[in-house]
UniProtKB/TrEMBL annotation:
Cofactor: FAD
Family: Belongs to the GMC oxidoreductase family.
Lineage: Eukaryota, Fungi, Dikarya, Ascomycota, Pezizomycotina
Keywords on record: FAD, Flavoprotein, Oxidoreductase
InterPro entries linked to this entry: AB_hydrolase_fold (IPR029058), Cholesterol_Oxidase (IPR052542), FAD-dep_OxRdtase_2_FAD-bd (IPR003953), FAD/NAD-bd_sf (IPR036188), GMC_OxRdtase_N (IPR000172)
Domain Glucose-methanol-choline oxidoreductase N-terminal: from-to ranges: 130-153
Matches recorded under PROSITE patterns: GMC_OXRED_1
Protein name: FAD/NAD(P)-binding domain-containing protein
Any GO MF annotation of the entry: oxidoreductase activity, acting on CH-OH group of donors
Biased composition (Basic and acidic residues): 10-20
Keyword check for Oxidoreductase: yes
Renumbered residue ranges of the record's region Disordered: 1-26
Length: 1263
């Protein structure tokens, strides 16, 4: 089904115009789509865009099918074709092997693989064909002649096609589309046509004995001689009669498949992709076929080996139509057979050069004007390349039939022709020239040499070009040698017949006073002819068996097993033709294609709409019809990509492209979490993997300025998994986007769903990590930018892990990647500016990390981006506990949000923060799930107090950590009172989670009896408890002869150290901030945050940076306060002693104090990368408690990779088996044990504790 688009319609008759530029003067029209918009599957895939491919694309699109057309060459419209040799030389592609039969010989492949002109050198004959959207129709001479009756009755044709008129309906259909017409009588007769007409009688006389009946007439040709719309709706221009057809004509008069069948296919919704060289075809495991192709765009040819081996693919669900031309289709099928697709042994056999001969009637005695140029004299035009024919096909033996046509030399070759013709051997000079005539010929030759090819009296202006089509022996063959095609022609032209034709042309030339010169290739290429009309290679079988051909009469490819065919795999180009036609073949090729496509449609029940006539088509606009959405399952992604591309193009934006190859090892399995371990395991399993991806930024300014720095990825990923190679389309590439999960870190990310040849979808996520750890190290910088950490997952299975590993860029591949870089724009200045913008951005991003210690510091800001992005639930209540010494602190309370059963009693947890922080370390607003979120969701009522050495104004009063125990006792008392008021019964024990200085203060309160152990259900002590032992760096700082606190007092005159700093601070603070850039936190922990640096000086490094997300690190000033010199001195003294001491330095760890902890369950947790307290300090606690009280009730848990505060402030704390899970299990265990005891003692009277409590006037409980 098809539906009309909402694109604007062209009103009335569109104004005639050439396709030089669009209305904005920015580009030529493009009906081809960027490969980035290729879908994974279509109903129909058409290979090639010549006559056969054009027919298939148009008719299938009109049949309501989703159609993808792949063309090796580029899209060119009139105005884009070369006119000089310099331009044409860049478009030449030479392949083949002149010693094809010699196994030792290696075929060549040189020049531009997507170039317009493809010369294949063969043994015995060479072939010249065209590449580009439109195929050889871009370069042919437009002659539309039907095959004669005698040729169609030859034995090589299936019986159905030998019937008279069998192809007529399809010829008629082709004529209706291509609209051939003869050169008008009202236009000046070209001189080359006049000469050919005059030579007809000579041909008649020459062939009188053989019974020749030559007929001269003007050929029907697909050239427009008047302005107007063609059959498809494209506006055409009248021919300017330039003779440029064979290198591409720029006047808009040539009726190629581009402006007919292909434009029609596009208008009916076909999607066309250029620079896609199809290499082979395989059966799809479920339905249809996989068409593998090499994409030559995005400078992918910088990786030549990968381009031809790491092939992209598209799935054809119903049909594959092969229309890549005789040479292209045969090569594809030979390679497909070589790669496992069973085919007939006739593939590559029975080929023909169509009996083509090229020759020159040089330096005749009359002006011929056969040298093409862009601006001919209207009164003396060159004319189309071919205008007339001497038709000698009506012979008793059809093999003796031939045609002679005149030709023209395109301007790009005219300046080379004179020296070439003069140098060639084997000339046949006219007999009986007088001395004067000989001198006149020499003079004419000098005039062409000195004055150029267009001098009217020069020899080239008097040179006729002869083109002959006849019959050869159909004994040519193509093979693959070293994966490259090699042609071998045997019995070219049937030697006697060839000699007769050459003799005829020599007489025709001599009769007009000229010198006969055989085709230049005949002399330059070891006396080999050249054909521009190769046919065969996938010839139709005369009886439908693989012994007689490679396809059925309808082009259906035979499997090689009897008459079995590959359903939906159909050849529709010259490769199908089983014999030379003795005339220009494209009319017959087109008719055969129309016949084959119609038969295929009937077979599948597809109705082709031949009747609907297009309105005016504007190739700058949108097609009239689009396929039904039912055909596709990726509409949203396509629409998004289309919008991005269209927006950039409409605004004339400049883009950037480059291609990248990365190789490495990926372990398949979900049991290994670590990338390095997975990489090593995969390497031992030889589970290599690699990708070949092209990056396209459609708007470079957007790429460098947008926050996500996004570009588009296209290519393949390959490994040992089933379904490899995986297609990558419209993947996301992010160039140095900020990593929200890590501070001061940017990532190059590769993120996309990719689809396998088995239709399985795998998600690829790869990250290159660039951060300050690379500072001043070229090797680390290279490693960071060349190592990709890859995770594969299944999106349909909740992104379950498929595999992990690492890919790397090698130095050689990096060099090729640089060579693939290109800036795209409409002029050189724009491209230069675009390249500079991209490279400046790339360099600055790398330099930011490479020079991290020297870059701008990150200062606190009053504006916090994404204030509370996770919409945290605020505290349910705020309390103000008053300690026994009268100091009042704050405490927040959160009611549970889940996890409770009806009527179940709520249990309480008190979270005690450390020094210079407050409740926010547990209720952090910058992570998705903090500790308060986690434990309230688990059904617990959570409390968190800020004691006097925390982030509070009280901290300025010069308290010690020992003093903070009073605030913890007051907080516990407040919670107990709340329990009594809520339940009307004795309070139950409370679980306490305490961190750092809070944990130390808790231990001291328990040890000296300020906090009764009976009030507590259990304790989780984070990173330290009774034995504060410093890491080596902190211990060194504490052991300095002059304490750092004393140095700071003298340097700043202050007894307070603030972990934050502002730009308005005193110069002494600014100097300190600059010096702290070089604090030895370790290469892996460099950053630019002022708050982070200052906290490191006071306490040591508080976290592993890779555990903090960017939002947290950027806002550290919100979460960190300061510390008095008194508090710091107390911490230093405890660190030096290695155990807790009170404010006066008295030891609290004697046996009597320790006895107070009996029966209290204690969980000790620590981060293995703790840089404040040595991780072993919790081991001291653990061993001392077990030694004193036995093993029951004590545990010690390590968290790999965590540091100090990040045990609570990192996103990873909430992951499975993370900090929260481990602590919760201990808390659940404690409350379960308590509830069990409570049920046993439910009738026993609750005994109060020995502490007394009072309630002050504010309702605050005081100990």
């Amino acid at each position: 089904m098809r539906s009309k688009t909402n694109s604007a319609k062209i009103e009335g008759e569109p104004r005639a115009r050439t396709f030089s530029r669009d209305a904005n003067g920015s580009s030529f029209p493009r009906i081809g789509r960027p490969v980035e918009l290729l879908r994974h599957s279509y109903d129909v895939v058409v290979i090639g865009s010549g006559y056969g491919g054009g027919v298939a694309a148009s008719r299938m699109a009109r049949g309501g099918q989703s159609v993808c057309l792949l063309e090796r060459g580029k899209e060119r419209w009139p105005g884009e074709f070369p006119t000089s040799f310099k331009d044409a030389a860049t478009q030449i592609h030479v392949t083949g092997d002149e010693n094809a039969s010699d196994e030792r010989s290696v075929p060549i492949d040189r020049g531009n693989p997507t170039g317009l002109y493809h010369l294949m050198i063969g043994e015995g004959q060479n072939a010249f064909v065209g590449n580009g959207l439109g195929g050889t129709s871009l370069l042919n001479a437009n002659v539309f002649l039907r095959a004669d009756k005698g040729t169609m009755e030859k034995d090589e044709w299936p019986e159905e096609l030998t019937q008279e008129g069998a192809l007529d309906p399809y010829y008629d259909r082709a004529e209706k589309m291509l609209e051939p017409e003869t050169y008008p009588e009202n236009l000046p007769e070209p001189l080359k046509l006049k000469l050919l007409r005059e030579q007809t009688d000579l041909v008649r006389k020459y062939g009188r004995k053989e019974g020749w009946d030559p007929k001269f007439y003007r050929v029907p040709q697909t050239t427009k001689f008047a302005d107007g719309r063609n059959s498809t709706g494209i506006e055409m221009k009248a021919s300017t009669l330039t003779g440029q057809d064979s290198t591409g004509i720029n006047d808009g008069s040539k009726t190629t498949t581009l402006v007919t069948y292909l434009a029609d296919a596009w208008n009916w919704g076909a999607e066309i992709f250029c620079e896609c060289e199809v290499r082979l075809i395989k059966k799809h495991p479920k339905e249809g076929y996989l068409v593998f192709f090499a994409w030559h765009g995005s400078r992918r040819d910088a990786f030549k080996e990968e381009m031809l081996h790491d092939l992209m693919w598209v799935h054809a669900k119903k049909f594959v139509f092969l229309g890549a031309g005789t040479l292209g289709t045969t090569e594809i099928m030979l390679r497909s057979k070589e790669r496992g697709l069973p085919l007939s042994d006739r593939v590559g056999q029975d080929m023909s050069g169509n009996g083509d001969l090229l020759a020159f009637g040089y330096n005749t005695n009359a002006e011929v004007n056969a040298m093409g140029h862009e601006d001919p004299n209207p009164d003396n035009p060159v004319g189309p390349t071919i205008t007339g024919v001497i038709d000698c096909r009506e012979q008793e033996n059809p093999l003796d039939g031939f045609v002679i046509e005149e030709g023209a030399v395109p301007r790009a070759l005219t300046h080379l022709l004179q020296p070439l013709l003069l140098s060639l051997p084997g000339k046949i000079f006219p007999p009986s020239l007088t001395a004067v005539e000989k001198q006149q010929q020499k003079l004419a030759a000098w005039k062409s040499t000195l004055l150029g090819p267009y001098h009217a009296q020069g020899s080239l202006a008097r040179t006729q070009v002869y083109l002959i089509m006849s019959h050869d022996a159909n004994q040519a063959r193509m093979t693959l040698k070293h994966n490259k095609p090699a042609l071998e022609f045997l019995g070219v032209g049937r030697q006697k017949h060839l000699e007769k034709l050459n003799d005829l042309m020599s007489k025709m030339t001599n009769s007009s006073g000229g010198t006969f010169i055989q085709n230049p290739f005949y002399a330059d290429f070891n006396q080999q002819e050249i054909t521009v009309h190769p046919v065969g290679g996938m010839s139709m079988s005369v009886d439908g068996t693989p012994e007689e051909g490679a396809t059925t009469q309808f082009g259906e490819v035979l499997t090689g097993k009897g008459k079995e065919i590959y359903e939906g795999l159909i050849v529709v180009d010259g490769a199908l033709v089983p014999t030379a036609l003795g005339v220009n073949p494209f009319a017959t090729i087109t008719a055969l294609a129309e016949r084959s496509v119609a038969a295929a449609a009937r077979k599948k029940g597809i109705t082709i709409d031949y009747d609907t006539v297009n309105g005016p088509i504007d190739p700058y606009g949108n097609p009239t019809y689009v396929p039904s959405p039912d055909h596709f399952d990726d509409l949203a992604a396509i629409k998004k990509a289309e919008a991005e591309i269209d927006e950039a193009r409409a605004a004339g934006k400049a883009g950037t492209i480059f291609t990248e190859v990365m190789k490495g090892y990926i372990h398949i399995g979900d049991e290994i979490d670590d990338f390095e371990v997975a990489f090593d395991q995969a390497r031992s399993e030889t589970a290599d993997a690699h990708f070949y991806l092209s990056v396209h930024a459609w708007d470079t300014n957007e790429l460098v300025s947008r926050a996500d720095h996004q570009a588009m990825l296209t290519g393949t990923f390959s490994n040992g998994m089933e379904g490899s190679p995986f297609m990558v389309s419209r993947g996301d590439f992010h160039l140095f986007n900020e990593d929200h999960h890590a501070p001061d870190q940017t990532n190059l990310t590769y993120d996309f769903d990719m689809i396998g040849t088995n239709d399985e979808v795998i998600h690829f996520n790869g990250i290159k990590v660039v951060n300050p750890t690379v500072a001043f190290s070229i090797s680390r910088t290279w490693q960071a930018t060349s190592s990709l950490y890859v995770t594969l997952s299944r999106p349909e299975d909740n992104h379950s892990i498929v595999g992990k590993g690492i890919l790397h860029i090698g130095w050689h591949d990096f060099g090729r990647e640089l060579s693939s870089f290109d800036a795209l724009g409409h002029n050189f200045r724009l491209r230069l500016r675009t390249a500079a913008s991209f490279l400046q951005y790339f360099t600055s991003q790398v330099a930011t990390s490479f020079l991290a210690p020297l870059t701008s510091l990150q200062w606190p800001t009053l504006q916090y981006p994404g204030e509370d992005p996770y919409k945290k639930i605020p505290p349910s209540k705020t309390f103000s506990p008053q300690a026994i010494d009268g100091e009042v602190t704050l405490m927040k309370m959160w009611e549970p949000t889940g996890g409770l059963r009806d009527g179940e009693k709520v249990h309480d947890i008190l979270f005690v923060p450390g020094a210079a922080v407050d409740h926010q370390i547990y209720a952090l607003p910058t992570i998705k799930k903090n500790a308060i979120d986690y434990f309230t969701a688990a059904g617990y009522r959570c409390w968190s107090n800020t004691h006097r050495v925390g982030k509070t104004p009280l901290a300025h009063k010069h308290f010690t950590v020992y003093d903070a125990r009073l605030d913890i006792a007051a907080a516990l008392s407040t919670i107990r009172l709340a329990q009594e008021q809520q339940y009307g019964s004795a309070p139950e024990p409370i679980y306490v989670v305490a961190h750092c200085a809070g944990s130390i203060a808790l231990s001291m309160g328990l040890l000296d009896g300020t906090i009764p152990a009976s009030w507590l259900r259990g304790v989780t002590a984070s990173n330290v408890f009774m034995f504060p032992r410093y890491t080596p760096l902190n211990k060194w700082k504490a052991s300095l002869p002059v304490h750092l606190t004393d140095i700071y007092r003298r340097f700043t005159g202050s007894k307070w150290f603030d972990c934050t700093s502002k730009k308005s601070d005193a110069y002494t603070q600014h100097l300190l901030n600059q010096l702290l850039r070089f604090y030895p936190a370790g290469w892996n922990e460099l950053c630019t945050s002022v708050a982070c640096h200052r906290s490191e000086l006071a306490f040591g490094r508080l976290w592993s940076h890779d555990r903090l997300n960017r939002a947290t690190h950027d806002q550290l000033d919100r979460f960190l306060g300061g510390c008095s010199m008194t508090c710091l001195d107390h911490l230093v003294q405890m660190g030096l002693h290695g155990k807790v001491i009170d404010s006066d330095g008295c030891d609290l760890l004697d046996e009597d104090h320790l006895q107070k902890l009996q029966g209290l369950p204690i969980q000790l947790i620590y981060g293995t990368e703790n840089a404040v307290f040595d991780p072993s300090c919790t081991l001291w606690d653990y061993e001392r408690l077990r030694q004193k009280f036995g093993e029951q009730g004590y545990s010690r848990e390590a968290f790999k990779g965590h540091g100090h505060l990040d045990c609570w402030m990192s996103e990873t704390a909430a992951v499975k088996n993370g900090v929260f899970d481990v602590v919760r299990r201990k808390i659940d265990e404690g409350f379960d044990r308590f509830m069990s005891r409570s049920r046993k003692n439910s009738r026993r009277k609750t005994v109060g504790n020995s502490m007394t409590t009072v309630v002050n006037g504010n309702g605050i409980r005081r100990v």
